Each structure stands twice: as C-alpha cells, then as structure tokens.
Amino acid sequence: MNFDPLIARLRAGNTAALARAISVVENERPGFERLLAEVHHSLGRARRIGITGPPGAGKSTLVERLVAAYRQAGQRVAVVAVDPTSPFTGGALLGDRIRMESVALDDGVYIRSMGSRGSVGGLATTTREVCDLLDAANFDRILVETVGVGQSELDVAGMTDSTVLVLVPESGDGIQTLKSGVIEVADLFVVNKADRPGAEQLRRDLEVTLGLRRRAGRQADAVLWKHPVLLTVATKGDGISELIAALDRHHAWLLESGTLQERRTRRLLHRTREVVDRATRRWVWEEARADQRIAERLEDISAGRVSPYEVAAEVLGGLKQGERT
Amino acid sequence: MNFDPLIARLRAGNTAALARAISVVENERPGFERLLAEVHHSLGRARRIGITGPPGAGKSTLVERLVAAYRQAGQRVAVVAVDPTSPFTGGALLGDRIRMESVALDDGVYIRSMGSRGSVGGLATTTREVCDLLDAANFDRILVETVGVGQSELDVAGMTDSTVLVLVPESGDGIQTLKSGVIEVADLFVVNKADRPGAEQLRRDLEVTLGLRRRAGRQADAVLWKHPVLLTVATKGDGISELIAALDRHHAWLLESGTLQERRTRRLLHRTREVVDRATRRWVWEEARADQRIAERLEDISAGRVSPYEVAAEVLGGLKQGERT
C-alpha cells in the first residue's frame, strides 16, 4: 500500500487521516513500519510532555486545563491517555475523557485513549509510535497521561521530553511514590488539590527529598536543573499558568544543555531495539512457524519425555539454520 | 556446571539447595535452563493455587491462614508473593511477609517475594519457573499471591491450577473487578472481611453475575464447575476450613473432568513459547550483538537520515543470514 497520500493529509492536519494512520499502527496492519519510517525524518517539532502520578491525583483535570491554556495560546494539542491496567482500549479512562467533550469539537485538539491489550511492553512501543504520528501531524504539544502503577510511570518518562509527577496531599500516596523510584525520572512536581490540608507539608517533604538528592549528586542533571514543586488546584484552574511557564523553562533548559538531543537520541536507540525485538518475534512466530514445531512436540513435553527448554533449543537451532534450507 | 547434586538436595527438601536453585533461575545464571529441563519430568505433584484480588483485600492474611491450616494437615507449603508494581524484589510485600515469621522457622514452609525488575513479562516467566522448582522440591501446595492490577491477575491465573479471587465489601473494588475480566479466570470467589457491612450484598452480586454468565454459556467449564462464593474473616480464621474444602473439591473436579491435564498442557505450550522468545532475545542481543549494529547507525537515525525501522530490518536480515558467514 502506498502511504504517500495518507502522510500528505496527515501533515496537513487532517483528523481523519490521523485516525486512520493511528489505526494502521495500533493494529500493526501491513506496511505500518513503512508508514512510521516515512515520517521519521520530519519528527521533533512537538514537545512531548508526560503527566503521571497515582490514581485520584487529578491528572485528567490537570490535562484538561493544560489543553485549554495551550489552545488559548494558539497551540495545537494532542492527548494520549494510557492505562496499562486496562486490557480494553478506552476502558477506565473513558469517563474522564467524556468531560473533555468541550474541547473535542476543536480541530486543534486530538484525544486518544490506549489500553493494554495483553502486553504492557507492546503498549509502550505503540504509544511511542502514536506520538510520532501526532508529531508528524504538526501538533505543538503532546500530553501523555498515564495511570501510575510502577513500571508504567517509568515507561512514560522514557517516551517524553518532560515528565510531570502529580501528587495529592491526602493519602499516603505521596510518600509511597517518593519511594518508588519515579521521583528519579520526574522533571517537574505538582501538588494538586493544593487547597486541601497537608499540601504545604507535602511540598516541603518533596523539596527536602529533592534537595538531599541534589546534594548526594545522584543525578547529573540535577546540578543544572532545579526541579520545581508547584501547587495547583486543577478544578479551579489555579497554578496552571505557573505550570505552563515551568514547562517552558524546562524546555529551554533541555535545549540549552543539550539534554533534549541526548534524551531523543536515547529514545531512538531504545525504539530501534524494540522494533528489532518485535520484528524478530514476527519472524519467529509468523514466518518461521515456530508454533507448528512446538505443537508437534507438545505431547512429549506434556508426558515429561522432553522439556520446554530442549524444544525451544531445537526451534532456535532451526531458526539459525533457516535461510540455508 | 553439574546440577545433579543440587537437584538431589532440592528433591530431598533441603532449603539451602532450593534457595540456591531459585537464585540460579532468577538471575538466569549459566545453565539455568538445563536445571529447569532436568526437573521437568518430575513435575505435577504440587497443587498450584493462585490468590489474587485488589490491594487491601486481605490476601496476605488469608494466605497466612491457609499456610497454617495446610501445615496442621501435614502438608508442605510454599508461598510465592508477586508484586509486578514493585521494581524491587521483596519491596512492598515485605511488611506483610514479616507477619509470617511465626511460620518462617518451619522447614515445611517456604516463602519467596518476587518484584518486577523492569519487565513484567519476564516476571511472569520467572515466577512460573520458580513454581517448578518448588514443585520439584516436593511441596504439596504452592500458593501464588499477587497484587491485583489488571494483567497480573490474568497472569497468575495462567500459572496455577486453581485461582481464588479475593474481594472485600467496602470500596467499589468489587464492581471494578467484576468488569475487569478477572472474573472470567477465577475458579473460586472469596468475600473477605465478611463481618463488615455489605458482605452479603457483594456475595449476592457475585452469584447473580456468575449465574448470568453460566446461563449465557460464556465459559464451557462453567457448565461443569459451579464457582463457589465463600465468606471469610481471615483475621479471625473464619471460613478458612470451608475455603480449603472448596479448593479440594475444585482439585477433584479438575482431575475428574480432565481439566487439570488440559490446563497443564496449555501452560506447557505457553511456557515453551516464552522460552523460545527469551532464547531468541538472548541470541539477538548477546550472541549476534545487535546492539553494536544499532550503535553504528545511531547517529544516522538521530539525524533523520535513516529510520529505526530500516535499521531493524538490516539487523534482522543479518540474523537470518547469520550462520552462513
């Protein structure tokens, strides 16, 4: 299939073309990698911003406010909402998304929910690829919102230029999160629902932790970038312009320090590895029909006459010889 | 390395040998697959029981009670506590485990916490392999406890003979879980903290849902196995003997109906696929040094002169030709 007309319409900001391209990539339709290869040389225009944090922190409301503010400034904004805990696309996040209908009729906004369909690794790769399509479609900002559960928070940091960690004063989430390793990958911290008791305390706790980390020199970046801790009340719109200003400062720092280029190159290295893994799996399971070889030995495996490990070694041996036959 | 002496000690129930074997497998030390292949023919003695459900449902306390009851009946019991949200082994679950010190000095009990170290898929595979070692070490029951977050609940069902879903009356967890697809893979349902308000209501809700599912014939098994919904108060030990009896009934049904053999064969098929994937990755990244090829092209990728997809295709082409050179 020739993707040139689709890419041309995508670049021109046609929403239907974008939806079609995303569907091609999400479902790994024939030629999807060619489509992504075609747009590769024109990427890098969009700023990719990750919004992560525990459930209930108000991420969706915050994202909605950011979208509105960016739109007011004339920016085109895309939102990718990732829920790795949901096996269903659009599942758990749908309720939150409905609230965004106000902006959904606006051509300068595009919203997409993505759920895991069995493979968390696969979800992260596909999300990164969807971000590429949005970048190619000339969005100025791509907001990647994720439900924070351990690995997914680290994943989102691996796919964006700036990562915002959203916390709330109540519940022990703040402290839990500080322990979880996600603090290491966040660039900006937001204490949302800051009109509730404990907000100032959480901000101080965060600043102490960040200060200690800086002094311990645990992150080279930290010498240059002083991680801000911002207070917001997303439901009222308080603190949103300060967050946008902080994101602008972070972007400027990323550019000046060379960190942007470094992060993007690291992401491309990681992406290439992912694509090799995926292409290898496709080769093994679809072209080389490893499943058939396994099916032939399944009775022996089940009876204990041969182990999965020996059969796997046979399959791999066959692959290594493959092209010779 | 010759694993025969290790395996002999493992079979004899030596705890140090078991810990050593698990460490070999967890860290994928040289020969770990040979070790697993060696024990393969003697598996199938242990009953593998999955305990899953949302955080706070009281799974750890329930597991502790089950361990005590099985011990009283003279059974050797192993517990594998899996937390896919924690990148650290023994992290979040450690607090719960400490309460089990009472049983930890008993030779007939073995407890192991497993955290994700970057890869959820890898965690599931390793957990299944650790269960094999416990089976080979002559444990009668292997309890696999997991913190329920979407995919991990489905994973645990894929590695056990019987899956117990633990819910609690308060919070909307019950309903959330019913929607999440995990109900489809559970064999037994436990409403824990049944002395709290709403327990009977949750049981009725569950029974209605299960009845509707049975009538809709959505699961062939359901025609034969009537999923029980049990009430427990794990902190007091209430309902534990009933749960053990229900697990015994489920095991008898699994045997009689041929479902046990069917499930185990399906697991072995899945395992063999996982081992092929892992062995392939090792070949690609360690033997064939795909990373080096990518590193050579990274500057071109970063400059937009070539895409990750083209470089991946080059790498794969090299692999297919590999053995010829």
Which outline of chain A best applies? globular
- Helix/sheet category of chain A: alpha/beta
Q: Largest contact between protein chains?
A: A-B, 67 and 66 residues
Lateral strand order in the biggest sheet of chain A: 3-2-4-1-5-6-7
Mind sketching the topology for me?
The structure is a homodimer of 325-residue chains.
Chain A: H1 4-11, H2 15-26, H3 32-40, E1 47-52, H4 59-72, E2 77-83, H5 94-98, H6 101-104, E3 109-115, H7 120-136, E4 141-146, H8 151-157, E5 162-167, H9 173-179, E6 188-191, H10 199-216, E7 229-231, H11 240-257, H12 259-287, H13 290-302, H14 308-321
Parallel strand pairs in A: 1-4, 1-5, 2-3, 2-4, 5-6, 6-7
Helix pairs in contact in A: 1-2, 2-7, 13-14
